[in-house]
UniProtKB/TrEMBL annotation:
Source lineage: Bacteria, Pseudomonadati, Pseudomonadota, Gammaproteobacteria, Lysobacterales
Protein name (Swiss-Prot/TrEMBL): Uncharacterized protein
Organism annotation: Vulcaniibacterium tengchongense
Superkingdom of the organism of origin: Bacteria
Pfam families per the UniProt record, alphabetical: CxxCxxCC
Length: 121
């Protein structure tokens, strides 16, 4: 089974992805490439493309529902690590469900995480 996020990408093309500007400042331990962000206010920046009425993160390399990868996965914003996929950790995720449904994809179910191999006879 492939991780469901690898054939999805919906959440990266549904929400505004905003976070504290310090995450783009190397001197403060920030890792997010600043040129991929835009200023929102005195405290926050957002990933470019996600403040639009039809959000799509500039770092998203995907065909939604078919294949998806984050081009800056190792250094992506903290907020991107905080959205769990539904049932990955035993509970539904309203954000995941909302994003998938908005892109015409069914919400994930526990069966999507069935990693158990068939029991040998
Ligand atoms: S919407 Fe859910 S399944 Fe799709 S990429 Fe985001 S967390 Fe993963
Ligand atoms: S930085 Fe990566 S994980 Fe975060 S919204 Fe953009 S593509 Fe998705």
């Amino acid at each position: 089974m492939r991780h469901p996020c690898l054939t999805c990408g919906a959440c990266c093309a549904h929400f505004r992805v905003s976070f504290h500007w310090s995450e783009t400042e190397p001197a403060l331990g920030g890792t997010v490439p600043a040129h991929l962000t835009e200023k929102l206010d005195a405290h926050r920046v957002a990933m470019r493309g996600t403040s639009s009425k039809t959000p799509r993160c500039t770092a998203l390399d995907a065909e939604i529902g078919v294949r998806s990868r984050c081009a800056i996965h190792p250094v992506k914003p903290s907020v991107c690590r905080e959205v769990p996929a539904s049932w990955e950790f035993g509970a539904p995720s309203p954000q995941c469900d909302k994003a998938r449904l908005a892109h015409g994809l069914p919400a994930l179910t526990p069966a999507d995480w069935d990693l158990e191999p068939p029991i040998a006879a």
